[in-house]
Amino acid sequence: MKLLVLALALVLATPALPASAHPRPPRDLRQLAQQTGVKIGSAVDIAALRAESDYRKVLNREFSHVTAENAMKWESVEPERGVFTWADADTLVENARRNHQQVRGHTLVWHNQLPAWLTSGVADGSIDATELRKILRDHITTQVRRYKGKIRAWDVVNEVVEEDGTMRQTLWLTHLGPGYIADAFRWAHKADPHAKLYINDYNLEWNAPKIETTLALVKELRAQGVPIHGAGFQGHLGIQYDYPGDWANVMRRFADLGLEVAVTELDVRMVLPVTPEKLATQATYYSRALSDCLSVRACREFTVWGYTDRHSWVPGWFEGEGSACLLDENLAPKPAYRALLNVKRPR
Ligand code: G3I
């Protein structure tokens, strides 16, 4: 009896916390996005979206933001000159609409996955600089207009800076000169004035020369009044490398220029075979990346580059590496998935 009285007294003496101080842990990533206020997205494999009902179900349950992994790239949407193939991109946008997902458009100007008619035309001189500029303007205008009002953010230029901090010598730079970047943003803005326009790159999380050049470029563009609104950090990480510990500070430096920032393509690969220890380390990389994003007010989106090891670019590109995603091949959550659910926005 004495004990009961003591326990009751203790309960009464403890000041009640408001319900919001200890919300229930989120049940899935969609709820985590709601609780933290950051958009949580995934890249989407359109063939899987069409053919695999389990893939579709999990994608639509977990994610409130999506990016086409390949379907909006130039070779996908205009494989032959003047022949537009929008079916895959339309499928993604329509699925997003039905499932209340916002969309990142990826990507308007890149040096990879260009159609052969374009690269060979430039190489053999049948497309000169004046025509190339017009082709780029038409491409951006056509694609951005088609999805006007349906794309939250566009990766306007992708991977334009080299690892050593020089501007990447792409077909665009070589033939059009550095002004193509400002032009691309202006054309995209004209076609959809409400879309957020991003510069996007990998290794921007840690590589000093790339960071400095990209910051200088953004400053210059802003000074010229170019409509650039965001910096995207792809975040292709591997547990065999140190976690980029300065990432949040780098995000802040871009935010200080007036940009929003986003994690646009996160995955965390490992050297195979998979072990419980490696999965535990991978979980810390994923949760640190989300914590970094949540520690920067301007970080609006946290997107993974595919959510399941069943469809991941990693094994095809890095021999002997894999298991980079949050869910395994059978769509079972890995420790990294559970670790994300426990990340809180810092007070
Ligand atoms: O479309 C062809 C298909 O017709 C053919 O049958 C098949 C045979 O291999 O290849 C298909 O093309 C592949 C394409 O993905 C579409 O699935 C290419 O071989 C393959 O190289 C291509 O890889 C993509 C890669 O970009 C190309 O650069 C990856 O799926 C995609 O995840 C990756 O994504 C990039 C981001 O856009 C930018 N940041 C880096 C990221 C990872 O590399």
Automatic annotation (TrEMBL):
Native organism taxonomy: Bacteria, Bacillati, Actinomycetota, Actinomycetes, Streptosporangiales
Keywords: Carbohydrate metabolism, Glycosidase, Hydrolase, Polysaccharide degradation, Signal, Xylan degradation
Family listed: Belongs to the glycosyl hydrolase 10 (cellulase F) family.
Annotated GH10 domain residues: 26-343
Gene3D superfamilies: Glycosidases
Family annotation (InterPro entries): GH, GH10, GH10_AS, GH10_dom
GO biological process: one example: xylan catabolic process
Catalysis performed (reactions): Endohydrolysis of (1->4)-beta-D-xylosidic linkages in xylans
EC number(s) from the headed UniProt entry: 3.2.1.8
Active-site residue list: E265
Protein's recorded name: Beta-xylanase
SMART domains listed in its UniProt record: Glyco_10
Keyword Transferase in record: no
UniProt signal peptide: 1-21
GO MF term set: endo-1,4-beta-xylanase activity
Domain of life: Bacteria
